Structure prediction request, 624 residues.
Amino acid sequence: MTRKLAVPLAGLAALAALPLVVTQSYLLHLVILILFYVALTAAWNILTFSGKVSFGHSAFFGLGAYASTILLVKGGVIPWIGLLAGIAMALIGALTMTVPLLRLRGPMFTLATIAYGEVLRRVAIIWRDLTAGSEGLTIPFDPGFLNMCFTSKAAYYYIFLAFAAVAVGISHWLYHSAIGFHLRATASDEEAAQALGIDTNRVQVVALMWSAGITGALGVFYAQYVYMIDPDLVFSGTLFAIQPALNGIIGGLGTVWGPVLGAVLMTPLGEFLRSYLGHVRQGLNFFIYGMALIVVVMVLPGGIISALAPLRSRLRGAGPRSPGKDVA
Amino acid sequence: MSDLFLQVTVSGLLIGGVYALLSIGLTMIFGVVRIINFAHGELMMLAMYLTFWLHTAHGVDPYLSLLVVAPAMFAIGVAIQRLVVQPILEAPALMKVFATVGLYIALQNLALMLFTADFRTIQTPYASASFRIGAISVSEPRLYAFLCAIVMIVALWAFLKFTLVGKALRAVAENRTVSALMGIRVSRLYLLAFGVGSAITGVAGTLLLPFSYVFPTIGSIYTLVAFVVVVLGGMGNMLGAFFGGLFIGLVESFSGTYVSPAIKEAAYFVIFILVLLVRPQGLFGMGKGSEEIGLK
Prediction:
């Protein structure tokens, strides 16, 4: 057990020292963004253990961001308590989503999730009394730990680093827990899993709750990082539903490390494309993303991690390892 | 019945005709190729931009531009089937979905690159003209759109019913293996189905443009509309898609008038979920292969 933990802990320690080396604001921002997407993609990916793919996680993200920000701006509640409220709101949102989750399979569920995220964005625009509509809400700049508001980027870096570690840790723990095995059994054959006595409904709901809860918490941290939220930002399907899904699919759906790899590779690439090609032509970066997704589906349906698997087992030698079962 | 009620019903049915056409395009592609096309609304968006471009750059009347738009969209559909769908036909349903999602992201951003995020529309002499029938007024472009849509739907129905190719298409929708055994070239008919489905979707886009806006992200709204209609009418069921289209037109018209135009997407979503809960096979029975795509 201690040996198993040694590598991740050493990695975390190295990452914790990073702000001492990286002092450029833009670079640090990029690293924060990578950590953010690692956490978001890992959270999104937990649901895919069950074989169900959501393109509507922006709903949970936005619910979290709005819950804490409304409490802070209108009630003066500190964001650390808002964090709990954000998670609670995301869980309530997830309860609504259990209806399509348990009723629909495959593409139809995915479609329902897109509609769900889109509807919440509309509601946030229309419900002006609560959300201030499209004008958005601004978080007052009042530095201090209690206010989750900092002058140095490094502080945010540590928050997102800690949270990315928590998200990946939960994902890893769930994957290898009894629930993870039940989920993967459900993903490969729901009827067979039921015949074996697995309560497939329960495990799917559990996966959705973890997935949504972490996503909601990220919405809170994100709102505190950017100070200004509006419906088109925090309920953005492109940024918080499609992007983690792209990372996950390209990295390797339904595995623990595939989505992490996907987020680490795709975020800097996306930023690079956005800052260089975005000036040339608006939209060019996402055009390339869309094409990349088509190509990955065609040539590498298991994601990048599936291409690395043979390499990894060779490095490890012929140890008694069980081959990981991939979804899809 | 009050005049307002009658007025709202008429405008709902008129727009519903166009939604029916859009949805028949989706259900045609689904019924034959058995792929859920998440880029369906984007096909419509492309056709709208094509119509816009033909009108602003070359002064072509939108209804005349159908002669260009329909064949162009047919070609685009065939190209998508050949280059994107054909290579992954045997992949699991979710993988096919990811490919069409990739397509939807690519097309949406292609439009952003070519036309920017501005809302665009075309000015025609008849854009705001209307006929008066008794106490209600009927907008001219909406009436033309409805009539064109009906003509297209009847023509498609006759094609499927009476021609040999149409019969072969229906045979493939029924059972692709047996069709192949009967000597039908299934992969060619897939190309045809995707082409025809895209072409009629494109026609729906052209018909909408004289009285609505086009912008790069408009496709996702119409993808949702088409899916709600198709789920309502039964996946793969053309007649169901027709009545489903009219029904969604009415829903949009009534919710827009009596509640708020901003909630129409929410209304679609609620209907979508309700149908799936109460009658997942749709109001008119499900087409073949619905279990493959997640309808129990």
